[in-house]
């Protein structure tokens, strides 16, 4: 199943394909993981499974804004802005 927008009202596991990466968003466990492509900009927290705090503007055609719980007491949260979203599809269990 493919959708044009992803919000916290949704459930399940979704793959958000951007111009250079895939973000695996699990709305049941509220986690996220970025799988960078070869042309992706580096993230400080590459390929870690992070506790998702918020999703803003996760809409095909534009960038998404994610915030994550921080594992450092000196930081309130981590954040990321994606490149434009190409598609959002539900992950199919194998």
Describe this structure in words.
The chain is mainly beta and 94 residues long. It has one domain. The protein is 0% helix and 50% strand. The protein contains no helices and 10 strands. A hairpin with a 7-residue loop joins strand 8 (65-69) and strand 9. The radius of gyration is 13 Å and the shape is globular.
Brief synopsis:
With 94 residues, the chain is mainly β.
Topology readout:
Layout: E1 2-3, E2 5-6, E3 13-18, E4 21-26, E5 31-36, E6 50-56, E7 58-59, E8 65-69, E9 77-81, E10 85-90
Antiparallel strand pairs: 1-10, 2-7, 3-4, 3-10, 4-5, 5-6, 6-8, 8-9
Poorly predicted sequence stretches spanning 5 or more consecutive residues: none
Task: Summarize the biggest pleated sheet.
Answer: 8 strands, antiparallel
Total count of strands: 10
* Overall helicity: under 10%
Counting helices, strands and paired strands, the structural category is mainly beta
* Beta content: over 45%
Quote the distance from N terminus to C terminus. Answer: 15 Å
Tally the structural domains: 1
The global form is globular
What Rg is obtained from the alpha carbons, in whole angstroms? 13 Å
Q: What average pLDDT do the residues reach?
A: 89
Question: What spatial order of strands do you see in the largest sheet?
Answer: 1-10-3-4-5-6-8-9
Q: Would you list the SSEs in sequence order as H and E? A: EEEEEEEEEE
Total DSSP helices: 0
């Amino acid at each position: 199943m493919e959708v044009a927008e992803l919000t916290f009202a949704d459930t399940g596991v979704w793959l958000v394909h951007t111009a250079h990466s895939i973000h695996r968003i699990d709305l049941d466990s509220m986690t996220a993981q970025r799988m960078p492509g070869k042309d992706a900009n580096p993230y400080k927290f590459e390929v870690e499974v992070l506790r998702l705090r918020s999703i803003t503007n996760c809409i095909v055609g534009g960038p998404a804004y994610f915030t994550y719980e921080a594992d450092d007491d000196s930081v309130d949260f981590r954040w990321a802005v994606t490149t434009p979203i190409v598609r959002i599809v539900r992950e199919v269990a194998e």
